[in-house]
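The data are passed on as follows:
___
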Amino acid sequence: MVRPEVVINENQCQGCGYCVKFCPRGCLVITGEKITPQGYLVASFIKPEECNTCGVCAVLCPEAAIEVYLNLSTEASV
């Protein structure tokens, strides 16, 4: 099974919101639940089923805090 994975480095994120604003599929949100030690709100990856791993979020992140992967799972689906 192949599934997208967006990893946000909470130590690097400065809560600018570019990833949320420019994600073409609305897969990221800033809910206010995650806050860095510096006080920045961190985005959350909430819709993996909608993500096509385009990488727009990673490219636009000025802090290079986002990495996008395709997770290749060897688990059989049930």
About this structure: The first strand starts at residue 2 and ends at 8. The chain has a mean pLDDT of 91. The first helix runs from residue 18 to 22.
